[in-house]
Design brief:
- It is a single chain.
- The protein has a single domain, classed as Aldolase class I (TIM Barrel, Alpha-Beta Barrel), CATH 3.20.20.70.
- The protein contains eleven helices and eight strands.
- It is of the alpha/beta class.
Length: about 250
Amino acid sequence: MRKLLIAANWKMYKTPVESTAFLTSFFPLVKNNTSTEIVLCPSMTSLPALVDAARGKTVSIGAQNMHWLAEGAYTGETSPTMLTAIGVTHVLIGHSERRQYFNETDTTVNLKLKSALAHSLLPIVCVGEHLNEREQNLTADVLNLQVSVALEGINPAALGSLVIAYEPVWAIGTGRTATPEIAEEAHKIIRAKVASIAGSDIAASTRILYGGSVKPDNAQTLCCLEDIDGALVGGASLDPASFSQIIANATQTA
């Protein structure tokens, strides 16, 4: 049984004060929820404050990015050891905005995934196609390539904590959402590719999230599907009431 996971990606929003204020309002709304893993991914500057505020609560804190090396002369970067030192437990890898605006590639995603696993961080690896790729019927090709390169050279035994987030790039921040049928089809492609690389047992236990304009009114419809194990939520996660309602609605299917 795959435990539902709902993660908030706050992108470049919220100061440390705003982040802790969010948790103060949000946690009472979800404190009785035991069937869902909840992860908040704030900006780097808010990580220490939010880790402290979340101690003793059933909410985990994740980073939006990291470098794959433990240290080095890489101005502006944050290492996995820096994240674990302050109590961060999860990390997003290869979000479409990182790929689009900061030139991340499938190869750097692979390096970051290896590093996250080596440092006992729970990785949420993002994959997904652009609109032109979908219109050219290349979705399966894109997803298979992204998953294949991401997992290249990794011992299947190390992939027990792996989470993959399918985010159709054409649905991120646009208000457009993949239909349940489109989302489920993509998730099946991803799970089949994981099975071909790491075996059916690993594939069966790997959680695959949907990300792309997830809101309270579509969370239940999406998360009730067989191969969708939760959501990576952007804009709708910035408001405590909205995000808690997404979790409540998604949990009705768990």
